[in-house]
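Key result, reporting period 2: structure in, sequence out.
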């Protein structure tokens, strides 16, 4: 096809004024994925008054991280940027972004990740002990609590207690407004979330001040505050750090959806569960003990399962960008100034890369098949690009949290999902969790159950 100035992507502008905003908010995953099947790797729409190109697939991922063509400044819908606390990493470009990202990455170095492991093991085990005594529970709520406490204690130095309980309550309300229509009227979900942001930032700033006053602490936040700018040699600004802590919580809580997906897929695929139990036992981790990054690497099937969970899990439907200039993509032109939405999950179910893409199949990531290597950007569950680009800072920590959860779940526990519940995701949530809360009973696995699981 010869591209001309008038060759806009296929699609629709939707309703007057509203465009297709209501459809995106009601089920952003279905909105993007259905239109990608219909139109291919690019389609146009109108969201919150902005002409928008939605791009999917590995080539789209490569385009989206090209900073010469796609900028982040001014790309995020204003109400979403407000909920992020203003100018956080997702909307920064150039040297400002690189400097801020380098500060934050101090909390995710190899030695930092290794230092977090004992805390993550302890927290996970503590939660499982409480769950086994609880009877039926809403596991979705409990997974949110575990995820937040894992982030809070390792990255922010906030242990379980009153402050963590307040953060948990605030973020629960905050996320209900995250996917709502941006109606700033008293009583609406967005209005409540916007008010809560001020309190969240105040808590994070107070924590920053406490760390500045006590330099003896050793956690992610202390590492961030000790970092120096590669441009000026100066330390990070406390308000910027507080804003990024808020951003890290928003991004990090996606882990709860990964955990829910793992639970559901292990129930649907008993052969995967049995193979994992066997691998854990052969790696010498069935009875616990001190976990190291090296020991995690001795369980490659666990990594395959983790990667397949991350490929399929609905977490966020799009990331936000803006065309710096007119861009040619897939035979169409994206005009300068248009919004560009990259569909992350839709990119991971592209059939040209992942055959039968909705089937849970950890063997995709085996050395023999290695479907994720069919394109340099075929697998980007935390975003793509280098560590100092716009890839999520926790791209190594988040999978570790998931794998530690899987180890504790499988080496000492069993679970039964309550009958007569809706396990379909609530697609208007961020992230979409099972509609009825993933009600379940968690029990301590007997020796016979563990043996049965290993034998299949």
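The corresponding designed sequence is given below.
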């Amino acid at each position: 096809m010869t591209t001309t100035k008038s060759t806009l992507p296929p699609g629709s502008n939707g309703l007057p004024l509203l465009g297709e905003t209501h459809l995106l908010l009601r089920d952003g995953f279905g909105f993007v994925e259905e239109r990608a099947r219909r139109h291919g790797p690019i389609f146009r729409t109108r969201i919150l008054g902005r002409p928008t190109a939605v791009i999917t697939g590995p080539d789209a991922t490569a385009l989206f991280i090209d900073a010469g063509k796609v900028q982040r400044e001014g790309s995020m819908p204003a109400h979403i940027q407000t909920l992020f606390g203003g100018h956080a990493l997702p909307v920064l470009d150039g040297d400002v972004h690189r400097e801020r990202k380098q500060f934050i990455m101090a909390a995710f170095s190899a030695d930092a990740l290794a230092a977090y492991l004992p805390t993550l093991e302890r927290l996970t085990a503590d939660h499982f002990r409480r769950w086994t005594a609880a009877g039926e529970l809403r596991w979705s709520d409990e997974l949110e609590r575990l995820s937040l406490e894992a982030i809070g204690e390792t990255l922010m130095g906030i242990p379980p207690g009153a402050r963590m309980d307040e953060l948990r309550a605030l973020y629960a309300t905050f996320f209900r407004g995250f996917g709502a229509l941006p109606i700033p009227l008293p009583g609406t979900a967005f209005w409540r979330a916007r008010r809560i942001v001020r309190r969240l930032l105040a808590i994070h700033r107070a924590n920053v001040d406490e760390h500045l006053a006590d330099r003896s602490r050793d956690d992610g936040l202390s590492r961030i505050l000790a970092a120096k700018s590669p441009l000026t040699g100066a330390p990070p600004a406390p308000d910027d750090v507080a804003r990024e802590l808020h951003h890290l919580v928003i991004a990090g809580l996606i882990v709860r959806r990964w955990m829910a997906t793992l639970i559901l897929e292990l129930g649907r695929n008993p052969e995967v569960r049995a193979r994992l139990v066997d691998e854990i036992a052969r790696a010498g981790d069935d009875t616990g003990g001190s976990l190291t990054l090296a020991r995690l690497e001795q369980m490659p099937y666990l990594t395959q399962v983790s990667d397949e969970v991350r490929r399929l899990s609905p977490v966020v439907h799009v990331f936000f960008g803006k065309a710096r200039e007119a861009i040619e993509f897939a035979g169409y032109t994206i005009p300068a100034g248009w919004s560009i939405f990259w569909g992350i999950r839709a990119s991971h179910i592209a059939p040209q890369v992942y055959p039968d893409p909705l089937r849970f199949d950890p063997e995709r990531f085996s050395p023999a098949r290695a479907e994720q290597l069919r394109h340099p950007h075929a697998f980007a569950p935390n975003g793509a690009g280098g560590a100092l680009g716009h890839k999520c800072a926790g791209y190594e920590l988040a999978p570790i949290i998931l794998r530690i959860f899987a180890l504790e779940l499988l080496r000492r526990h069993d679970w039964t999902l309550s009958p007569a519940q809706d396990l379909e995701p609530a697609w208007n949530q961020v992230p979409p969790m099972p509609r009825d809360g993933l009600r379940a009973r968690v029990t301590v696995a007997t020796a016979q159950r563990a043996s049965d699981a290993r034998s299949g």
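The first strand starts at residue 42 and ends at 47. The chain is about 50% helix and 10% strand. This case is discussed further under Risks and Mitigation.
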